[in-house]
């Protein structure tokens, strides 16, 4: 993958299992009806409890993994209390320092690989913007269209909600959509979305190598250029319920330049690299 993509092992971390997760050893064979929802969280104490409460209303078969990415607020404490109250298998991984969104999400892919038995791995950010009730739609779309990666888009016809992002962030989204489309032939409307469902071919690769910073457009491009099937489904995107986005003001330009360079470098690498 591109220069922003790092091969890594899981950071040293403390793991808390919810009581519901106790029992026999994890399944080793892929279970088409057992999925993992990964919730990366950095300084999300204001929104995490409500996000997990919504995820706990999912149908049976969905397990939860909160990755506390070295938060400096009470995110870890909130996560531990919330997973103990979950009615489904739920766990918390505490990273020892703030490693970035890429490392946090890759921790979830590594967890899925090492535990075994999962069909799909879904990323759902902790900031309250995503509707957890739409996760089964992402999984269903992957199955119906045989997708390796399904992205929840706020820009497709039929999408609803109170958040369309800032003007400059929309400029960045359109830029990446155009760049990925021209270089790979895969047309997307929301390649930066953090609401995504990865099938086994995608998440197994992501466990081995994943972008370490601003991972969404780079990983989408990697899938597209390596022959994995990528698609979108219209989703509801709500306004951020709390916390602060990591991409603001001048960082938007930095983000666009860094990720564009990574995609262009990835374009000239051998397929599969």
Q: How is the secondary structure organized here?
A:
Blueprint: E1 5-7, E2 14-17, E3 35-41, H1 48-55, E4 62-69, H2 75-85, E5 90-95, H3 101-115, E6 121-123, H4 135-145, E7 149-153, H5 167-184, E8 196-198, H6 200-208, E9 209-211, H7 215-225, E10 230-234, H8 251-268
Parallel strand pairs: 3-4, 3-6, 4-5, 7-10
Antiparallel strand pairs: 1-9, 2-5, 6-8, 7-8
Helix pairs in contact: 1-2, 3-6, 5-7, 5-8, 7-8
Describe this structure in words.
- The chain has helices at 48-55, 75-85, 101-115, 135-145, 167-184, 200-208, 215-225, 251-268; strands spanning 5-7, 14-17, 35-41, 62-69, 90-95, 121-123, 149-153, 196-198, 209-211, 230-234.
- The chain is an alpha/beta fold and 273 residues long.
- The protein has a single domain, classed as Alpha-Beta Complex (Spore Coat Polysaccharide Biosynthesis Protein SpsA, Chain A).
- The strands form two sheets. It has an eight-stranded mixed β-sheet, sandwiched between helices. The chain has a two-stranded antiparallel ribbon with strand order 1-9.
- The relative contact order is 0.19.
- Residues 2-10 and 19-29 have low confidence and may be disordered.
Average residue pLDDT: 85
CATH topology: Spore Coat Polysaccharide Biosynthesis Protein SpsA, Chain A
The largest β sheet comes out as: 8 strands, mixed
| Helix share bin | 25-40%
Strand order of the largest sheet: 2-5-4-3-6-8-7-10
Multimerization state: single chain
Task: Give the ordered list of helices and strands.
Answer: EEEHEHEHEHEHEHEHEH
Count of discrete structural domains: 1
Number of helices: 8
